[in-house]
Design brief:
By secondary structure, the chain is an alpha+beta fold. Among the domains are: 125-221, Calcium-transporting ATPase, cytoplasmic transduction domain A; 336-448, Calcium-transporting ATPase, cytoplasmic domain N. The protein contains 20 helices and 22 strands. The strands form five sheets. It has a seven-stranded mixed β-sheet with strand order 10-22-21-20-11-18-19, with helices on both faces. Strands 12-17-16-15-14-13 form a six-stranded antiparallel β-sheet. A hairpin with a 2-residue loop joins strand 16 (428-434) and strand 17. The two termini are 30 Å apart.
C-alpha cells in the first residue's frame, strides 16, 4: 500500500467514525449541519475540487461532477425539508471513496504482481579489471565485452558463454520453473538468474537492445494500444454521462411541472429531486470505465508471467478470435537444428565414416557441416585434411590422412561416376565415397520440437478450425512433417514472398470475423508476421526482425505457448464481456427503480460502488493464468 492509499484509508476511517458518532450527538439546526459538514468535507473535498476544475475547464460530465451534484443536492434537500438527515450524502461520498480506494489498491496490486513477476531488470554488470570484479551500469557495456555473472546474479545482457557452465532459472522470462543448463559456446539471454557456476559471457548486444530491455518495453507500452472494447467504453462514457445528467434534470423538473399544471396536484418537488439525485448516483459509469482497462491490463500481466508477451490490449482482443493458425516450419514446429539420424549401407564402421565426413566438411560453416562435426564429437584436426574442393550445389572432395574422400548429394556421386544407393528416408542425404568406392550415406534431418504435435492437437480442441504450414523445404520433407503433426494444409518450396502471398490468399478466403495468426521465427518471416491478422514470434531463438514485426512474442519457443496465448486472450475477453453485461445490466435495472421511486440512496450506493468492486474483483481474475 502506497502513501496515497494509506492517506485515503485514514480519511475513510475518520469520516466513517465521525458519521457514526454524530448519530449519537443530540444537536439540531445549523450546528447539526456544521458538524455533519466536517466528515463530508474530510471524505469528499478532493471530489469537489475535481468537479470544480472540470466545470472550469468545460469538461463537466465526469464521475466527480455526478458525485458532487448528487451529494450537495442531498444536503440541500435535507436543509429544505428541515429533516436534518445528512447521513445519506456523507454515506454516498464515503462509499464512493471506498470504491475508489479499492480500485486503486487493486490496480496497484496487479502492477506490483506484474513488476515482481517481471523483476528481471539487472542493476549492474560485472566487468573484470586488474583481477577484480567491478560493477558497472549495464548501459555502459559495449558489444563484445566480457562480463562475469556469479551464482545468484541476473544475466544483464545477451551474449555467448565463453567459459564456465551453470544452470539458469528462466521462470521470469518463460513462466516455466524447469531450469536450463548452459555451457561454453551456448547463447544466453538477459533476465535469467544464474543458479550455480560462474559464467564468463561475451556480449552480443547493447543493453538497450537486449532481451530484458525489449520485454520491459513491450509490457510497459502495452497499455498504450487500446482494444476496440476499451475504445467502445471511452466513447460510451462520453455519450452516457451527459445523457444521464440531462435525464436526471428532466426527472427532477418535468414530473412536478406535470403534476402542477396538468394534474392540478401538489408538485412534490422534494420527492422528485431526491429521485433525480438517486438516479445520478446510480448512473456513475465507474464499473465500466475502471474494470475494462483493468481486465486487459491484468490479462497482459498474466500472459507476461506465463512467458507470452502481448504488445497491446488490441492484439489480445484480436488473438481471442483466432480460427486459423499458419506455421513456419523450421525453428517454429521443428528445432531448426540438423542432426545425424542414421548411417545406411556403410562399407566401414559408423564412427570411421563420420570421421571422414566431418573432416572433409571441416572448412564449411554450413549447418549440415556443423551437424556432421557435432556427431563426430571430437576436436577437428585440420592438419589431417588437404586438397579441399567445394563443388557448389554438389558437395565437397578432400584428402583425409591421404585418403580421397567425397561427401555430397547424388549429383556429386554422378559427377564422380560412382554408383550409389538411394535413400528412402526423408531428410538431407550425404553420400560418401572413399578412394573412389561408395562407402554408404549419412541421413541428416531437422528434429520436430517435443510439444509441436500436442500444440496442433490442442489448438484444434480449443476451437481453431484450420492449421497450415508454410516452408521453403522440399515437398517430401514438408509433407512428412505436416503428416506427423496433424497439420491440415501444407505448402512447400516457398520463398519469403511466396509465404506472404499464401497468407494473403488465406486471409481473402477466411470467414468474416475470423482471425488468421501466423507463427514464425526467422528474418524471412518478418513480412508475413506483419501481414497476418496477428503475428506471433518465437522470442528465445527468433530473430530481432521477427520479434519487432510480431504482435505477440513467445519467450521460450514452445509451440504449446501458442495455445496458452489464445486461451489467456479468450479468458480476458470473457471477463471483459462479463463486466460489460453485468455493469450495464445492473445500472439499467437500478436506474429504472430509481426513476419510479423504488430505489433509495442506499441502493444507489450498491449500484455504483458495489457493482464497481465486483467488476474489479472479476477483472483481477485475468492475472491468474497458470492452469490455462
Amino acid at each position: 500500500m502506497n502513501k496515497k492509499q494509506k492517506k485515503m484509508l485514514i480519511r475513510i476511517i475518520i469520516a466513517a467514525v465521525l458519521m457514526i458518532a454524530l448519530n449519537f450527538v443530540p444537536v439540531t439546526g445549523w450546528l447539526r449541519f456544521i458538524l455533519y459538514l466536517v466528515p463530508y468535507l474530510v471524505i469528499g473535498y478532493d471530489i469537489l475540487i475535481k468537479a470544480g476544475k472540470g466545470i472550469k475547464n468545460r469538461q463537466v460530465f465526469d464521475e466527480s461532477f455526478l458525485m458532487a451534484v448528487a451529494t450537495i443536492g442531498a444536503i440541500a434537500l435535507a436543509i429544505y425539508e428541515q429533516s436534518g438527515d445528512y447521513t445519506e450524502a456523507i454515506a454516498v461520498m464515503l462509499f464512493y471513496q471506498v470504491g475508489e480506494w479499492f480500485q486503486s489498491y487493486a490496480v496497484g496490486k496487479s502492477r506490483r504482481n506484474i513488476s515482481e513477476l517481471m523483476d528481471i531488470r539487472p542493476d549492474y554488470a560485472n566487468i573484470e579489471k586488474d583481477g577484480k570484479l567491478e560493477k558497472v551500469d549495464p548501459d555502459e557495456v559495449e558489444i563484445g565485452s566480457a562480463i562475469i555473472v556469479q551464482p545468484g546474479e541476473k544475466v544483464p545482457i545477451d551474449g555467448v558463454v565463453i567459459s564456465g557452465s551453470s544452470t539458469l532459472n528462466t521462470s521470469a522470462l518463460t513462466g516455466e520453473s524447469l531450469p536450463r543448463d548452459v555451457k561454453e559456446g551456448d547463447e544466453i539471454i538477459s533476465g535469467c538468474i544464474n543458479m550455480s557456476g560462474v559464467l564468463k559471457i561475451r556480449t552480443t548486444k547493447e543493453f538497450g537492445e537486449s532481451t530484458v530491455s525489449q520485454i520491459l518495453d513491450l509490457v510497459e507500452n502495452a497499455s498504450s494500444r487500446k482494444s476496440r472494447s476499451e475504445d467502445f467504453i471511452s466513447k460510451f462514457a462520453r455519450v452516457y454521462t451527459p445523457a444521464v445528467c440531462y435525464a436526471a434534470l428532466a426527472l427532477a423538473v418535468l414530473p412536478p411541472l406535470v403534476r402542477m399544471f396538468v394534474m392540478g396536484t401538489d408538485a412534490a418537488w422534494g420527492n422528485w429531486i431526491y429521485r433525480a439525485l438517486t438516479f445520478l448516483v446510480i448512473s456513475c459509469p465507474c464499473a465500466l470505465v475502471i474494470s475494462i482497462p483493468l481486465s486487459f491490463f491484468a490479462g497482459i500481466g498474466g500472459a507476461s508471467n506465463a512467458g507470452v508477451l502481448v504488445k497491446g490490449s488490441n492484439y489480445l482482443e484480436t488473438l481471442s478470435k483466432t480460427k486459423c493458425v499458419v506455421f513456419d516450419k523450421t525453428g517454429t514446429l521443428t528445432q531448426g537444428v540438423f542432426e545425424v539420424n542414421g548411417i545406411h549401407h556403410n562399407a566401414m564402421e559408423d564412427a570411421k565414416l563420420l570421421e571422414y565426413a566431418a573432416l572433409a566438411e571441416s572448412a564449411s560453416s554450413h549447418p549440415i557441416s556443423r551437424s556432421l562435426q557435432r556427431a563426430y564429437g571430437k576436436e577437428i584436426d585440420r592438419s589431417r585434411v588437404s586438397d579441399i574442393e567445394e563443388i557448389s550445389g554438389n558437395g565437397v572432395t578432400a584428402k583425409v590422412d591421404g585418403v580421397e574422400v567425397a561427401a555430397g548429394n547424388e549429383k556429386l556421386m554422378k559427377r564422380l561416376g560412382i554408383k550409389f544407393i538411394p535413400c528412402h528416408h526423408v531428410g538431407t542425404i550425404i553420400h560418401m565415397a572413399v578412394n573412389g568406392a561408395y562407402a554408404g550415406h549419412i541421413l541428416i534431418s531437422d528434429i520436430v520440437k517435443p510439444h509441436s504435435k500436442e500444440a496442433v492437437s490442442a489448438l484444434k480442441a480449443s476451437g481453431v478450425r484450420k492449421t497450415v504450414m508454410l516452408t521453403g523445404d522440399a515437398k517430401k520433407v514438408a509433407d512428412q512433417v505436416a503428416g506427423d503433426l496433424g497439420i491440415d494444409e501444407v505448402y512447400s518450396e516457398l520463398l519469403p514472398a511466396g509465404k506472404v502471398e499464401k497468407v494473403e490468399e488465406i486471409i481473402r478466403n477466411k470467414r468474416e470475423g475470423d482471425v488468421v495468426a501466423f507463427v514464425g521465427d526467422g528474418i524471412n518471416d518478418a513480412p508475413v508476421l506483419s501481414r497476418a491478422d496477428i503475428g506471433i514470434a518465437m522470442g528465445a531463438m527468433g530473430s530481432d526482425a521477427a520479434i519487432e514485426a510480431a504482435d505477440v512474442v513467445l519467450m521460450d519457443d514452445d509451440p504449446m505457448k501458442i495455445v496458452k496465448a489464445i486461451r489467456i486472450s479468450r479468458k480476458c475477453l470473457r471477463i471483459v464481456y462479463e463486466n460489460i453485461v453485468f455493469a450495464i445490466g445492473i445500472k439499467l435495472i437500478c436506474l429504472l427503480l430509481g426513476a419510479v421511486g423504488i430505489a433509495n440512496m442506499w441502493l444507489a450506493i450498491f449500484a455504483d460502488v458495489g457493482v464497481m468492486i465486483i467488476a474489479v474483483l472479476n477483472a483481477i481474475r485475468a492475472l491468474f493464468v497458470k492452469k490455462l
